[in-house]
Design brief:
NDH-1 is composed of 14 different subunits. Subunits NuoA, H, J, K, L, M, N constitute the membrane sector of the complex. The structure is a single chain. The two termini are 29 Å apart. The chain has a domain of 205 residues. It has 22 helices and two strands. A two-stranded antiparallel sheet has the order 1-2. The chain is globular, with a radius of gyration of 21 Å. Helix content is 76%, strand content 1%. It is mostly helical.
């Protein structure tokens, strides 16, 4: 019992810290709620310290082999912790003075804790609990936004999330009935001995539930509305942190299933559809938030392409971890740019941004081209390796689709950058300039995250070695 508690110390730090922040917020005057953010930041730093301690320890499991504490869990903790620090800094002036300011920080901590539970679980029952813990704070973060479209976005997210949760629990129940256990270790024998239709139904249902968390097809409809209708902080969280845990959870599930070509092929099809649907829909978007919302759906497709190669190719696992880290820091940079320029909602309103705020535009350019996969960013290295591992895994058609969709995504990313470089000649651009505040802290975050995306690409070799 004691060893299990020590193994899950980072998650316990987040949980106890969230409870402490909730109590502190209840006793703190509304005008001084900002101190809760400071405490939440200290909690995350404590979480990262406990994570580093765990990375130095050998791989193990906790609570009767229901949670894996290995290099995948360790690197997931690091990425989530660093993302939380960025999100807390991003939330600084956006939620300051809101009646539920302290609750926002609490929901960020609890949502991240649920994501870690999803990513590290090796038991279907724990997976279900983690799914619920990661989902409920997400609904709150979207619904607390002051935007007029927040209620609709929160309702759509809740309905899709509740349905996905039911589907996940149904799939877990089917697999438990087939394997006689909820442990991943028993799924191989249970699914192999079961009727093909029953095994396929259980696996597909669990996958559909996890795809909601990842924001991938077919449970993706809520993502653009949630990104558009919530705070920038909430949008940055929901397009980054839940995806990390969900993709790792799908990888662990795929590893536990029988070594048959059908399961990687299924994930490969989901990856192909997600990246294609996301990119095609983003081409038609004029609202920059919805554009990024559809873009994140396509990015999940690339991540799932790596997952499909994990059972067959050894280096696919470290490639996935590098991709997760690179995507997280690059995506956060994009949303920090949006927070720094809150008046620029549509693409045409970014006209003249390069002349007015050159450093911020440069950060946006690095981030958008980083999402495409332009050297020397981390996503570039990850996408090259993605094409290599999918080809090596016998999924040549998927490797071709990854390359084709990468080229396709250039169209809408470059359209946004072209608007930034154009002269501010339209009324929309002048109106955006008039409404834009200084945004110094978000701008610094954007530049820092963009620089981190480049740095991570330059040190990709050591990162891959550590992940492997």
């Amino acid at each position: 019992m004691t060893s299990s508690v020590v193994a899950l110390l980072p998650e316990l730090v987040l949980l106890l810290g969230a409870v402490g922040c909730l109590l502190l917020g209840s006793w703190t005057p509304r005008r001084r709620q900002g101190r809760v953010r400071g405490v939440a930041g200290l909690v995350v730093l404590g979480f990262l310290a406990a994570t580093v301690r765990g990375l130095l320890a050998p791989s193990t499991t906790a609570f009767s082999d229901t949670f894996a504490v290995d290099e995948v869990t360790g690197l997931l903790r690091v990425v989530v912790g660093l993302a939380l620090l960025v999100l807390l800094a991003l939330a600084g002036d956006e939620v300051a003075g809101h009646p539920r300011e302290s609750e926002v920080y609490v929901l960020l901590l609890l949502g991240a804790d649920g994501v870690l539970l999803v990513g590290g679980s090796t038991d279907l029952a724990v997976l279900v609990v983690g799914f619920l813990l990661a989902s409920i704070p997400l609904y709150g973060l979207i619904g607390l936004s002051t935007a007029s479209t927040a209620p609709e976005a929160a309702l759509k997210t809740y309905l899709v999330g509740a349905l996905s949760g039911i589907v996940l629990m149904l799939g877990a129940a089917v697999l438990h009935g087939l394997a006689g256990s909820t442990a991943y270790a028993d799924l191989d024998a249970g699914v192999t001995a079961a009727p093909t239709a029953a095994g396929a139904a259980g696996v597909v249902l669990v996958l559909v539930g996890l795809l909601f968390k990842a924001g991938a097809v077919p449970a993706h409809f809520w993502v653009p509305d949630a990104v558009q209708g919530s705070w920038v902080t909430s949008a940055a969280f929901l397009t980054t942190v839940p995806k990390l845990g969900a993709v790792v959870a799908i990888m662990r599930l795929l590893d536990a299933l029988p070594r048959q070509d059908v399961w990687p092929a299924l994930v490969a099809v989901l990856a192909a559809v997600s990246m294609s649907v996301g990119n095609l829909a983003a081409l038609t978007q004029d609202d920059v938030r919805r554009l990024l919302g559809w873009s994140t759906i396509s990015q999940v497709g690339y991540l799932l392409a790596v997952v499909a190669a994990v059972p067959a190719v050894d280096r696919a696992r470290p490639t996935l971890l590098l991709f997760l880290a690179g995507y997280a820091v690059t995506n956060l940079a994009c949303f920090a740019v949006l927070r720094a320029e809150p008046g620029r909602v549509r693409v045409e309103q970014w006209q003249g941004a390069a002349r007015r705020r050159p450093a911020l535009t440069a950060a946006l350019g690095v981030s958008l081209l980083g999402l495409v996969g332009t050297p020397p960013t981390a996503v570039f290295v990850a996408k090259v390796l993605t094409i290599a591992v999918t080809w090596e895994a016998g999924l040549a058609w998927l490797a071709v689709l990854v390359a084709a969709n990468t080229v396709l995504s250039l169209a809408y990313y470059l359209r946004w950058l072209a608007a930034c470089l154009a002269r501010a000649g339209g009324d929309a651009a002048r109106t955006a300039d008039a409404r834009t505040g200084p945004g110094r802290a978000p701008a610094a975050l954007a530049v820092g995250c963009a620089g981190a995306a480049v740095l991570l690409g330059l040190v990709a070799g050591p990162v891959l070695a550590l992940a492997g």
